Amino acid sequence: MPSPFIIDRSSVTQIMAWVLAALLPGITAYVWLFGPGILVTLTLASVTALAAEAAMLKARGYPAKPFLADLSAIVTAWLLALSLPSLAPWWLIITGTLFAIVVAKHLYGGLGQNIFNPAMVGYAVLIVSFPVQMTQWAGPLELTLVEPGAVQLSLAQSAAVIFGGDLPKATLDAITMATPLDVLRTGLYQQLTVDETMTQAIFGHYGGVGFEWLAAAFLLGGLLLWALRIISWQVPLAFLAGIWLTAGFLHFFDAGRFGAPWFHLFSPSVMLCAFFIATDPVSGATTPRGKLIFGLGAGFLTIVIRTWGGFPDGVAFAILLMNLCVPLIDQYTQPRVYGEAIVKRDDGTRKEPRT
Amino acid sequence: MSRELFKFKGGIHPPGHKAESTGRPIHPAPLPKKLVIPLRQHIGNPARPIVDVGERVLKGQLIAAADGAISTAVHASSSGIVSAIGPARVPHISGLPDECITIETDGRDEWIAHGPLDYQAMTRADLLAHLRDMGLAGLGGAVFPSAVKLDPGAAQTCPTLIINGGECEPWITCDDMLMRTQADAILQGVAIMRHLLGSSEILIGIEDNKPEAIAAMQAATAKTDFAVETVSLPTRYPGGGAKQMIETLTGKQVPSGKLSTDIGIQVFNVGTAYALARAVHHGEPLISRLVTVTGHVLRAQNVEALIGTPFDTLIQLAGDRDGTTGVLMGGPMMGLPIPDTSVPVVKATNCILVESAELFPPPPKALPCIRCTRCADACPAELQPQELFRFAKSDDFGRAQEYHLFDCIECGCCSYVCPSHIPLVDFYRYAKSEIWARERDKRAADLARERHEFRLFRQEREKTEKAEKLAAKAQAKRAELAAAPTEAGNSGTSEADAKKALIAAALARAQAKKTETTPQNTDNLSPDTQQEIAEIETRRAKIRALARKPLESEETP
User: Fold this and answer.
1) For residue A337, which residues of chain B lie inside 8 Å, CB to CB?
2) End of a domain among B482, B500, B521?
3) Number of domains composing chain B
4) What is the reported pLDDT for A55?
5) Domain check: are B292 and B266 in the same one?
6) Chain A interface, mutation test: which of B169, B252, B428, most A Cβ atoms within 10 Å?
7) Contact B383 A337 (CB under 8 A)
8) Which of chain A's residues have a Cβ under 8 Å away from the Cβ of B429?
9) Do residues B349 and B406 both lie within one domain?
10) What is the CATH classification number for the domain harbouring B346?
11) Using the beta-carbon criterion (under 8 Å), do A3 and B334 form an inter-chain contact?
12) Domain assignment present for B70
């Protein structure tokens, strides 16, 4: 065994475990604001992901234990589950998870080899194939509970809905709601201005009622990952800047037709993407400048797709499109190495003094 | 500290493990019965032996002289009889034996006549030649011949002199202990370096995990008659690397492919400065050095060991323990595994690190790279290790070189931080050695191609020579033929006649040859066959006519 003879204690498992831990504030907020249905979705996605991972590892002749223990399959499952409507039917969850693990991850070569973010591939397949089922979002309890005849679903009742239990249509209508993005989109179709649409009950201070707090909880977890240096600052900051600048630019020129930048920033999907999805190291850019370009591009595309695209949210497609550009971005953003090209300067000075 | 410091990129903070070996005073190692002194302990040409087997040598006696521009001398570490000159096991990465001089010591440790040198009265060339014969080489690990580095060359001067007391590798403390105990002697060496290099700015860089050494050096620098600054540096591996220390202290980077002297900076290890002082002020060549013996031993400590002392002797001195899993020369980050502990201490041996399963557990199984770029964040050469790994793994050596593979200093930071536990440095070593091997093959192929091209050239040349010879012969023949008409008195047309005669002769020869040729299968046919051929020809004509007909009918409707 040649040098070095010591290694740091960190591991892939540890990194993945921290990512899962950083999702807990978001999940807690989700349950608090939207009911316990998400727990069923998370569990179902996790079990499916582990089973699919184990089966694919066996099929590919890899040892199951070290790869199952790396927790990467669970991370994919959770990210997908958090992107899906919390009362989506069971088969939708399983289909998306299987597609993410089997096709996007293992058919591309497994851990570390996938070009596309597996969770986003799963999401994209579902939104393209089953657009109707992908709208079964549980509304924020703050709004659904005040409606006449409203009920709060228990964990068991949520599971029953997800597994196809026959809930009265009226009840289902009472607990599910269009997301703020959908409401805004519908409003704009109806020739209403943004301000007119925003008077509806679902809109809160910055984003949607409940939704904005969920976004804040994802932000909190994301900051934890940054503090632990599990993610770099470049991708989240550039992604959020991309969202803010693009949305702000459009809003500045026509506030009546384009949502405010704060509204876009404080949507859960944007915060989840900024800190947990765009930061996926495997499918993202690796160089410091490349990360900035990747983040900015994804933010820009998200707003473009939200504004002019045919789907309610643009995050997944923005990420997948930027995933495509990663080899190009990386190749053209290689940083200067030690001692390279400083001969140009006479004294060789390069860096600013440390303060 | 008043001095502004700069930050080199990357680096790691591995556990230091320095206290283990700094608690005990420096201990002189026992005189072994046999000293094995390699001839190649430095970078450059191996020293040339100047003693014979059976000869008695004294301590400090020159036994092998420097050979060539980049080389240094080797001396007897103690008195005794030369018992062998030939291959023996040495601490080298290849594990292969190398030329060594073996001395059976006589226990008297008898010095050769030696004394101080008035270096200020000497010319620079004489002093450098003398230092070369004192066997000085960089003791920080690279063992580059010091006399070469002390020659400022055409520049005549090297404005900045950095004395490296960084000692950033975990476990190693020999420089620390040397600075604590020999600060004044180190500065005497620095004074000689300053004299030779003409440096105006002298900096001693010490990582701040060695407060005692910093205090000792500061106390000593207060007494010098020239300006020296002891600078406390933040502890961060590989801050003791020459390039990193230069950047920390001056903010400058050594341009890729150049030397630090190109930007007016020379760096020496504190141990080298001490050895220089011993050589000049005491006339003692480099025959011993401080070695940290630490790790899985009972009494980790620093020992003053003679060059040539077997590792075993030092490990026993420190108290070997059960459960030893291996021995390293150097630290855990860049050290060399030593499978055979009978090998001798050499000038580069700063540390003997004894491993155990508890201190150095085997790394977990490697997982695939997840491109987390922790390695890139840790790389002090500012490379993209994850890309180099990808290229090395897929044998894409061209791309690896494009991504600056050869700027890798193999410090091990990338392997240290990798959460997938990939032995990254191994992949870079593999890629480098493959590239070297291919370049060797290419050189061999180039040589073969040159030989082949020369052979073609030679054949071509021989052909032309032959043709020229033939032409000359023909000329002679023409002259001969021309001679006949000249006799007839028609010298004006003789040239043309000669040519005509030659052509006529050639035609006659060709005609003769033609008649000689074997008959073709269409000649001399029997009447039956001729008739057959005629019938075939008729049929073919008929078919041709039939084939043409439809076309004609189309044309004339």
Assistant:
1) 256, 381-383, 404, 407
2) B482
3) 2
4) 96
5) yes
6) B252
7) yes
8) 2
9) no
10) 3.40.50.11540
11) yes
12) no
Same domain, B317 and B434: no
> In this complex, which of A10, A335, A350 lies closest to B253 when CB atoms are compared?
A350
The torsion defined by the Cα of B462, B464, B465 and B469, in degrees rounded to 10, comes to: 140
Give domain status of residue B465, yes or no. Answer: yes
Quote the minimal CA–CA distance from B42 to chain A in Å.
Answer: 21
Structure tokens at B22: 């700094």
Q: What is the CATH number for B440?
A: 1.10.1060
Contact B419 A11 (CB under 8 A): yes
Could you state, in order of their start, the residue ranges of all structural domains in chain A? 12-332
User: In this structure, what are the phi and psi dihedrals at residue B80, rounded to the nearest 5 degrees?
Assistant: 160, -165
CA distances from B267 to A60, A86, B139, B205, B256 (A): 53, 64, 12, 10, 17
Q: Which helix (DSSP H) or strand (DSSP E) does residue B176 occupy? A: helix B174-197
Chain center to CA of A155: 24
Asked if A302 contacts A311 with a C-beta cutoff of 8 angstroms, the reply is no
Least Cα separation, residue A62 to chain B (angstroms)? 11
Q: What does the DSSP assignment read for B366-422?
A: P-------HHHHH-TT---HHHHHHHHHTT-HHHHHHTTGGG-----HHHHH-TT--
- B154 Cβ neighbours under 8 A, 6+ residues apart: none
* Whether residue B375 is found in the same domain as residue B348: no
End residue of a domain, out of B482, B512, B540:
B482
Residue with the two structure tokens 């702000």: A248
Same domain, B165 and B197: yes
Virtual torsion, Cα B482, B485, B491, B493, nearest 10 deg: -80
Which member of A338, A347, A354 has the closest CB to residue B380?
A: A338
ipTM of the complex: 0.87
For residue A81, give the nearest of A212, A272, A262 by alpha carbon: A272
CB atoms within 10 A of CB A268: 29
Judge whether B537 lies within some domain: no
Phi and psi at residue B21, in whole multiples of 5°? -110, 5
Q: Is residue B532 part of a domain?
A: no
Q: What is the pLDDT of residue B90?
A: 93
Confidence of residue B487 (pLDDT cuts 50, 70, 90): low
**Residues B280 and B398 occupy one common structural domain:** no
Identify all chain A residues contacting B418, using CB atoms and an 8 Å cutoff: 7-8
Find chain A residues with C-beta within 8 A of B417's C-beta.
Answer: 7-8, 10
Query: Tens-of-pLDDT digits for all 355 residues of chain A?
Result: 688 999 998 899 999 999 999 999 999 999 999 888 899 999 999 999 999 999 999 999 999 888 899 999 999 999 999 999 888 899 999 999 999 999 999 999 999 999 999 999 999 999 999 988 887 788 888 777 776 666 677 888 788 888 876 666 667 777 777 788 888 888 887 888 887 777 777 787 777 788 899 999 999 999 999 999 999 999 999 999 999 999 999 999 888 888 889 989 999 999 999 999 999 999 999 999 999 999 999 999 999 999 888 887 889 999 999 999 999 999 999 999 998 864 444 444 444 333 3
Which of B2, B256, B328, B403 to probe the A interface (max A CBs under 10 A)? B256
What's the domain range around B375? Answer: 367-482
Residues B227 and B336 in one domain: yes
Distance from C-alpha of B106 to C-alpha of B217, rounded to nearest angstrom: 38
A-chain CB neighbours of B91 within 8 Å are none
Same structural domain, B130 and B187:
yes
